Fold this protein.
Amino acid sequence: MLFHISGVFILSVGDFGKHIAMVRNLMMSRLDELLKEFDLTGSQYAVIKHIAEGRADTLAKLCELLQYDKGAMSRILSRMEDKSLIIRKPCPDDGRAFRLKLTPRGKELFPQTTPKVNALFEQALAEFSAKEKEAFFSMLERCRSNLS
């Protein structure tokens, strides 16, 4: 349901969450479908991307960046280890933590998959002008910031 307030249409609170969840679920479903040929899921791609770009090298940092709980992320990492995409090495300064590194196979997959993932993102934003894209991402960042 849309409400018109001061020349602006807004969604009801329930619709806001529903639309965000629908877009997220559809995006993850399409990513999973797109990455099947590489034996990857969208979540696994996100892990590879963050490790490859040097943004994360621990379970805790990945949880923070990707908004997963530690149990779910641990299961993702275990499946990735089984696929020989990552290796976990004990942190020298913290015996409870592990440093994550991409295996040669994980490093090889990142540049192969990134163009396909980026094409999907471009498809999702295809009818947005540059100004609309900028405003959209700015608003999403503000929502995230408001909730942090």
